[in-house]
């Protein structure tokens, strides 16, 4: 994979911050990528959460100095080796909570409703798809969730027996928000991603990941892999926690691109996904943020909604539906019996 495919399109202007693993005894370090060099700034800030909480985070990251660990090409190459060599990338988040928002794209919402009601019957799926399109009468993404129009559609779908839990969080007033992974449990670019051994139907699930501070303000963005265990979470919404929070099941990276006046986080595009399985099947595609049922700001507000001022709370990575840290230094013994896939961008 070329460097151009592993970093943002505006990598030469982007302000990239991340975490790397150094040879022991040094361990993890915060780094800034500047002019193709990976600069260790861990002597100036303790962790990523503290960096994001700075009032001048982007300005500070643009000017801070420190020793050069290596060039960025070496870092990326080391991260893709097996086993990985130090220094290599870790997930850019550390002690923050990792929240995810599901059912964010209108087309995905419809297909999940169809999947739920068709029970694997292709003929029935085609009938349902046509029926839903007639009921909706156009592009579902044009409907504002929670609006009068959305509620009228909800009532109509309920009356026709076409309502579902997916439709509720897709166009209803409340977004789906769940805890994706524990702090420090995400893996980084090039690491192996863990799949629960009970799952036999699964796929990578590329997401846009926002890095937000304790006040809920977006500081930057990157990519993530939500790891979809379709045969588990698709059976019941109550199985979502079991399906989502597993060893090495969250991949984030390669680094956070800080929001600046020239590269605001709002310009980030949904990732292009090209997924190959051991069965040699390949799926590819992309989505624009414009087709999301809810805005990023709306989902962020549902992820960070304190009833009182936040104190000593770390809110970090909000996955809006692959790249990554160590081969899961959660402990390789914990994941060695699980099928794995390689995390890439």
From TrEMBL:
This is Fumarylacetoacetate (FAA) hydrolase family protein. The lineage of its organism: Bacteria, Pseudomonadati, Pseudomonadota, Gammaproteobacteria, Oceanospirillales. The keyword Metal-binding applies. The keyword Nucleotide-binding does not apply. Belongs to the FAH family. It comes from Halomonas elongata. InterPro entries: FAH (IPR051121), Fumarylacetoacetase_C_sf (IPR036663). It comes from the Bacteria. Keywords: Hydrolase, Metal-binding. GO terms for molecular function: hydrolase activity; metal ion binding.
């Amino acid at each position: 994979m070329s460097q151009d495919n592993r970093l943002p399109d505006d990598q030469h202007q982007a302000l990239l911050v991340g975490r790397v693993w150094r040879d022991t005894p040094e361990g993890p370090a915060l780094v800034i990528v500047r002019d193709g060099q990976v600069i260790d700034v861990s002597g100036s800030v303790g962790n990523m959460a503290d960096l994001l909480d700075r009032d001048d985070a982007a300005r500070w990251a643009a000017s801070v100095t420190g020793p050069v660990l290596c060039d960025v090409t070496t870092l990326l190459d080391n991260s893709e080796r097996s086993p990985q060599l130090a220094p290599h990338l870790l997930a850019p988040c550390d002690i923050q909570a990792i929240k995810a928002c599901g059912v964010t794209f209108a087309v995905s919402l419809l297909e999940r409703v169809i999947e739920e009601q068709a029970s694997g019957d292709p003929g029935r799926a085609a009938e349902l798809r046509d029926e839903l399109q007639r009921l909706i009468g156009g592009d579902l993404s044009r409907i504002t969730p929670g609006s009068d129009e959305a509620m009228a559609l909800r009532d109509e779908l309920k009356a026709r027996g076409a309502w579902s839990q997916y439709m509720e969080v897709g166009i209803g007033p409340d977004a789906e928000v769940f805890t994706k992974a524990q702090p420090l449990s995400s893996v980084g670019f090039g690491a192996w991603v863990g799949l629960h051994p009970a799952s036999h139907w699964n796929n990578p699930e590329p997401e846009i990941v926002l890095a937000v501070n304790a006040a809920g303000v977006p500081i930057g963005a990157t990519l993530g892999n939500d790891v979809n265990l379709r045969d588990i979470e698709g059976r019941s919404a109550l199985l979502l926690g079991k399906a989502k929070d597993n060893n090495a099941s969250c991949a984030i990276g390669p680094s956070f691109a800080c929001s600046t006046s020239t590269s605001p986080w709002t310009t980030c595009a949904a990732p292009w996904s090209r997924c190959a399985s051991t069965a040699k099947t390949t799926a590819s595609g992309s989505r624009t943020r414009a087709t999301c049922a809810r805005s990023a700001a709306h989902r962020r507000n549902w992820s960070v909604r304190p009833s009182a001022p936040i104190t000593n709370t770390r809110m970090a990575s909000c996955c809006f539906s692959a790249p990554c840290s160590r081969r899961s230094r959660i402990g390789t013994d914990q994941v060695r019996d699980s099928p794995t896939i390689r995390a890439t961008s």
